[in-house]
Specification:
By secondary structure, the protein is α/β, with parallel strands linked by helices. 45% of the residues lie in helices and 11% in strands. The chain is built from 14 helices and 11 strands. The strands form 3 sheets. A 6-stranded parallel sheet has the order 2-3-4-5-6-8, with helices on one face. Helix 2 (19-27) packs across helix 9 (212-225), helix 3 (31-49) crosses helix 10 (251-264) and helix 4 (88-101) packs parallel to helix 5 (118-131). The longest helix is centred in the N-terminal third of the chain and has 19 residues, at 31-49. The protein is globular. The two termini are 28 Å apart. It binds 5'-deoxyadenosine and FE2/S2 (inorganic) cluster (FES). FE2/S2 (inorganic) cluster (FES) binds next to helix 14. The site of FE2/S2 (inorganic) cluster has 7 residues, from helix 14.
């Protein structure tokens, strides 16, 4: 038992571990060690961010996607999806309503939709920044060229989310069709970082075919890459995909990884994701108590909420933004945390010298 505590203490001190120790941390913790891991993750989180929870207003502005990721409900070959695109006015209206509710970050998330050319994305970003100069704009619109990323950045985009999904090339191939490669995904992440974005990467926990070795590879990749944000959530099957009968990722595995990531990246912005709230009614609260510090209520118009279904059973699809926001405030207060009106930037760069 003390062996594992020692590993947790070393992770907190060194921000990384040798492979065998990651293996032990992932597979060999007693319930007491597990509790200790959460305590340390919470403590580190409190040292850096106190009990503040940052809000991100998620705007799912298009569910049209040219990609065909095998796990995803809005993959192009799913003909059962009613496709939609929000107009510029609708998107700006979401931001205005979000602003009034206290949001200071807007996350524009969408499929890889050719209608949204670089020019259109740039116009959208710069219009949002003109109307709300005190807000951050985060893009989550997939793989682009370095030039495109630069153009979005020059238009005012602050942050970019692009999960690698898995860092292992063979596993990546198992989850994605030929035209997508982990090499290009990592190229994108590096370009984004070099350009100056606050960058988020991340994985699905318990995705089909995922092994402990894959997770270790993910942790090592993220330890090296030092993202500003890490989005992880359980894999959840979608009925119109070939993974429909696969088991979902578990709450325990997701919480465990959240806590490990908090110790590895003390300053990171780590959301308690909607997927986590979907597999357990108190998933997001538990995520915060395992070290997460961000929640992302949905600001999309309620008319399109139920059309952006990456997985089955997604929560909050019937709720108005205002309701969702109040609900989130109550949920965070119920565990002794408070959502704050702030852009919620990372406390400092995740460089080698932390805290
Ligand atoms: N289950 C859980 N998460 C999923 N995502 C896509 N499909 C699923 C699924 N079936 C996640 C991916 C993507 C993010 C936007 O949503 O990790 O990066
Ligand atoms: Fe969306 Fe509760 S957080 S309804």
């Amino acid at each position: 038992m003390t062996g594992c505590r020692n590993i947790i203490d070393r992770l907190e001190k060194d921000y990384t571990l040798p492979r065998e120790d990651f293996q032990q941390l992932l597979t060999g913790l007693s319930p007491e060690d597990e509790e200790y891991l959460y305590e340390r993750a919470r403590e580190v989180r409190h040292q850096v961010y106190g009990k503040d929870v940052y809000l991100r207003g998620l705007i799912e502005f298009t569910n049209v996607c040219k990609n065909d990721c095998y796990y995803c409900g809005i993959r192009r070959s799913n003909l059962n999806v009613q496709r939609y695109r929000l107009s510029t006015e609708e998107i700006l209206d979401c931001c205005d309503r979000g602003y009034a509710l206290g949001f200071r970050t807007f996350v524009l998330q969408g499929g890889e939709d050719g209608y949204f050319t670089d020019d259109r994305v740039c116009q959208l970003v710069s219009e949002i920044k003109t109307r709300h100069p005190d807000c951050a704009v985060t893009l989550s619109i997939g793989e682009k060229s370095r030039e495109s990323y630069q153009a979005f950045f020059d238009a005012g985009a602050d942050r970019y989310l692009l999960r690698q999904e898995t860092s292992n090339p063979v596993h990546y191939r198992f989850l994605h069709p030929e035209e997508l490669t982990i090499e290009n995904r990592k190229r994108c992440l590096q370009d984004l970082k070099d350009i100056g974005y606050q960058v988020g990467c991340g994985i699905m926990v318990g995705s089909p075919g995922q092994t402990t070795d894959h997770i270790i590879e993910d942790l090592m990749f993220m330890g090296d890459f030092k993202p500003h944000m890490v989005g992880i959530g359980p894999f959840i099957p979608h009925k119109d995909t070939k993974f429909r009968d696969e088991a979902p990722g578990t709450l325990a595995d997701t919480l465990h990884l959240l806590a490990i990531l908090r110790l590895m990246l003390p300053n990171a912005l780590i959301p308690a994701t909607t997927a986590l709230g979907t597999i357990h009614p108190l998933g997001r609260e538990k995520g915060i108590l395992a070290g997460a510090n961000v929640v992302m209520p949905n600001l999309s118009p309620s008319t399109v909420r139920d059309k952006y279904l990456l997985y089955d059973g997604k929560i909050c699809t019937g709720d108005e933004a205002a309701e969702c926001c109040r609900c989130m405030e109550r949920r965070m207060e119920s565990i002794g945390y408070q959502v704050v009106v702030s852009r919620g930037d990372a406390k400092q760069e995740n460089t080698d010298v932390l805290l």
